[in-house]
């Protein structure tokens, strides 16, 4: 479904990002996975090369808080693979302190990665995509972007902002043939969920109408569809992939 396409996936070293990288490779895209450190990116690339020996894959690790570093890394990908067609803004962190205990520095940290880095990466990618005649930007939102959560207000605030970027940029960039969509995962079995108290995970899982937590591949499948030409008339959408969860 992605033959001839080039993708960058941030937070591509594990969890949802890694599953998305694998899905894109299986569908014949060339993929650059971005990690928070070059060492972890290289390690993930080495493991993927064993599984996908014919795949075109590279690892990058720009500081996502540094516009010049992001621009340079995206140019490096364009030079290595010839173009850039898909960006998946997936790197993200979570935090669940109550308001009274919330360290303002933690609030800023979440906004810096979950929102500011999405803006920064999108801007760098869109400049390349506009020049080459189009592309696809995909954002990892969250089910909590629809109704908040009872603690850790920074995380849902960041994902509401991701939805705002998605819908606004879809309207702004349509004329440049750049589609912008988001996937809003429910509770997905990754390190982020492993860090939650087991009691909370069980409580959430027991309320899921489809009777199970999501797997990273469930989200990767949604990204694959939205990245592909099958979604050529879809832009500005926030697609829930959550088994109809309401937390
Ligand atoms: P994860 O913790 O397994 O992966 C997070 C990724 O982000 C890692 O690759 C990590 O290296 C990267 N990252 C973290 N800090 C970074 C930084 N400062 N700079 C660059 N990269 C950094 O988490 P995950 O569950 O796979 O989450 C991926 C995305 O999915 C996040 O945006 C998250 O908010 C979202 N999400 C996850 C769930 C879930 O239940 N797991 C639900 C809804 C949304």
TrEMBL record:
The gene is baiA1. InterPro entries: NAD(P)-bd_dom_sf, Sc_DH/Rdtase_CS, SDR_fam. Coiled coil: none annotated. The lineage of its organism: Bacteria, Bacillati, Bacillota, Clostridia, Eubacteriales. This is Bile acid 7-dehydroxylase 1/3. Its EC number is 1.17.99.5. Keywords: Oxidoreductase. GO terms for molecular function: oxidoreductase activity, acting on the CH-OH group of donors, NAD or NADP as acceptor. GO terms for biological process: bile acid metabolic process. PANTHER family: 3-OXOACYL-[ACYL-CARRIER-PROTEIN] REDUCTASE (PTHR42760:SF133), SHORT-CHAIN DEHYDROGENASES/REDUCTASES FAMILY MEMBER (PTHR42760). Belongs to the short-chain dehydrogenases/reductases (SDR) family.
